[in-house]
Structures are given as structure tokens and as C-alpha cells.
Amino acid sequence: MAMELETKKKSRKVLRSSFTRQANELEVLLNAETPVVESVKVLWELLQSKHEELGILDHAVYDLMLDSAAEAELESEIEAHDAYLKKFTTLKVRYEKLFDDAEMAKAESSRSSSTGQGLHINETTGKRKFKLPPLEFKHYDGSIKDWLAFWSQFKKIHEDESIDDHDKIEYLIQATVAGSKARQLVESYPAMSENYQKIISSMLSRFGREDLQIEVYVREVLKLILTNAASQQKMEIATLHDQIETQLRALETLGITSDKCSALLYPLIESCLPHELLRAWQRSASFSKCEPEDVSNGSSTCTLEIRLKKLMAFLKHEVENEQRITLASEGFGLSERKVHAKPSTKKQGDIPTATGLINHETVRVTLKGIYRSKMVRALFDTGSQRSYILSETANELGYPPKRAEKVVHCLFGGKELSNAHNCYDVTISNGKHSYTFEALDQPVICNDVAPVSYGPWMKEMADLGIEISDVRDHGPIELLLGADITDSYTLLFCLLH
């Protein structure tokens, strides 16, 4: 690890020198009375690339130093990173100001020149030098979801008074799918001019009702949540953002703006997000600014409407970040080298994620069996009405089943799953005291739950008299302590003594 740390520091030192040199060159160009736009753009693109590479190296060095370095060294590392970030941000502001001023000057010049040339512009406007392809009808099949797109196109024919009503019926027949519900409705009326308004009224009442349209797009949001939750392969951020925006724009078209339905849409959209993205949103500055200033008296400076707008802005920003990362990788050929590179035989270590920063309520307890005892990892879950024990552990300790119970589990989305469980008398013992309670068996209780990682905070908690039993060693959760026993003083006495 020490050798890897030194290698990354050496690489970062070279990159910082290159970053400083290019930053100084860009600053000289920006200080000039008439900056050369092409040179400024070239240096800015190079500086952006250097800044992204430097940020990746800074994070890698900090992660390697985290376990062994002193607190002062870590603070020094962060200060150095902030200094380069400040330099980059200063140049970014100056760069954007340069081009904003240029755009304003260009717009002002355009307005002044248009005053003297207004007559000439009006004479030439509208003269098209190319032929556009003919538009084709969007064929409608009677789907409520596709009504808005169809009606926005056909509405031009409907409102054109120069077209005879009989011809409008013919156009309407051509614009519907043969054999569909829409075609059947149109053809149910004789093709006469006086029936055209009746046909349109019937179509509007059948397919174009606003209440049905609103239900469809709200259900699309719900469908997106359930699909994303049930699918093992999660959607890309760009796809997720575009699908959510599609439903919101459709609702706005129907007059359902975010101020009217934010209380419903915000929790639904938040439920669409993957866990990692949801944690990133809740850690972001935009989410923090949306927290109520005074919860005690019920006042809030940020409504759900503003929070919904900030959430969509956050998703848009994440999509742009993904695009930048893709461009940076493809621009330097990194993705191509990945395809043609030989498979590495070196065993890769675990990659730390934000999931490991969350410590669940776990504890190590001793289960007393008929012939032996076993130390197991237990998880407190007050959201579960019953307690559970791993089936393999119950068999290993020789617990005899008391009875069989059929339990209906209510899952997310209103689904119900009926399972049969064996019920056991489980005994927790600390040598002096014991506590026996009922638990149902389960083949797998939960996925991997990491214990508390060992670090300097362990000594601080020990000084405060806080003892943590579930430290370091990984292992499956073999016991789930539900709401049926977590309020028991006898259980707490066994765990604390």
C-alpha cells in the first residue's frame, strides 16, 4: 500500500505542475485587453481535463492515506485540494464572464444594425430555398396515452375553416389505424358534413378526457417505480431522467403543474431513484437547503414544489456529469483500450462505496441450543412484526419446531406473498441471564450487512462508555429481532450485562 501511495503522489505532483502551468497561461490570456478567443478555448478545454484527472488522483491518495495517516496530514491534504479547486473555479468564472460579455455585445450590435436594415430583412424573410418533405399523419389507434400527440397534429385541420367538414372526416379516417377503436368510432357515423362535430365530440369524450389523461400519466410514474424496483438491471440515469420529464411535461400540458401535484409527485419520483443516487441527492446542497428551518411550529421555508424542481435539476446535473465522464473516457481512447486489453490476472480488492458508511443496528449475541451454543450476528428491525432465525442456524443448534405457521407478507406495491414457517423457541444467553422468545425460520434473512469498521472512533466511544460488539468480522445475519421483542427489558438486560 505504501508503494502504491508513493506512486500516486508522484503522478499527482507531475499533474499538479502541468495544471499550474496551464492555469497561469490561461490567466495571462484572460488579463489581456483583447483576449484571443481560440487560444482561450483551447487552454480552457485542456485545463478542464487536467482538473478532472487531478480530482481522481486526489481522491485515490486520500483513500490510501485514510487508514494510516494522522489527522493533521489529512487536513493538509484537503487544504491542498481546495487550493487547486479555488484556482480552477476562479478561472472558470472569468472564462464564463468573458463569453457572456461577448454575447451581450453581439446582441447589442445586432439590435442596432436591425434598425437600419428592417425593411430589407422583412423582404427576405420567408423565402425558403429548399423543399420540405410532406408531413404524414400520426396514425391514432385509440390509446389514451397517445391522444395528446395525435390531437396536437389533427387540431390544425379541425380549426381550419377553409376545409369542408366532409373532407375533415376523410382526413380523420386516414389519421386512424384500420380496425382500431378510434377507426370504429369514426366509421360508426355516416360520412356526412353534419356528423363531423358529433364525431369529434365523441372522440374527445372517449379518448381526450382530461381526468383520464391525468390518470394515465400518474400511472406511468407508478409503473416506472414498480419496474425500476422489480428489475435487477437498473435504468441509466439519462433514461430515468427523460422518462420522468416526459410524464411531468405531459401533466403540465394538461394543466397539472408542479404546484398542484408536488405533494403526490415528489415522493413518487424520489422512489424511482436507485439507492446510491438517492443517497447522493440527500447529501447534496440542494436537498439541505430544502430542509425546514423550524419544525417545532410547523413552518417550512421550502415547499414540496421547490423541492421537486430542485430534484429534477439535480437529476439533470447528474445526466450532464455522466455525459462529461463518457466524453472524457472516449476522447482519450480509454474505453477502446478496455475492450482490447488482456484480462488482468491480478485479484482486485473491494471497491469502497457509500453503502459501507451506513452502520445498521447490529449486535453479536450468544444463542443457547440443546447441545451447544453459538455466537451469531443479530439485526434489530422494528419494522418487522415478527422475529426470525436462519433455518440453518436453528437446525445447527438442535431447536425442535413448536408448530408451523402460514404468514402472509405484505410487500412493496401492495403485493402479498404467503409462506410457511416453522416456529422455534430461541434462547439468548450471556452466561448469567437468558431470555427465550419465539422466532420463525427463514432460509435467508437479508443480504450482506457490514459490521462497524475498526478505526480511531472506537477508542472515542470506549472513553464514553459505549461498547460495540459487532466489529470487524463479516458474516451473515442469523437472527432478526423484530418489534415483538425489542421492547423487552429482559432482552435488553441480557444484551447489556
Gyration radius (Cα, Å) is: 33 Å
Shape descriptor:
flat
How many DSSP E strands? 7
Mean pLDDT, to the nearest integer, reads 77
Instruction: Return the CATH class of the largest domain.
Output: Mainly Beta
- Can you name the CATH architecture of the largest domain? Beta Barrel
Order of helices and strands: HHHHHHHHHHHHHHHEEEHEEEHEH
CATH superfamily of the largest domain: Acid Proteases
The main β sheet shows up as: 7 strands, mixed
User: What ranges have pLDDT less than 50 throughout 5 or more consecutive residues?
Assistant: 114-125, 293-301, 336-341
Please indicate the count of domains.
4
- Estimate percent helicity: 55-70%
Q: Termini separation (Å)? A: 40 Å
Major beta sheet, strand line-up: 1-2-7-3-6-5-4
Helical element count?
Answer: 18
From the helix content, strand content and strand pairing, which structural class follows? Answer: alpha/beta
Strand content: 5-15%
Query: What would the CATH topology of the largest domain be?
Result: Cathepsin D, subunit A, domain 1
Q: What attributes does this structure have?
A:
497 residues, alpha/beta, Methane Monooxygenase Hydroxylase, Chain G, domain 1, 4 domains, seven-stranded mixed beta sheet, flat
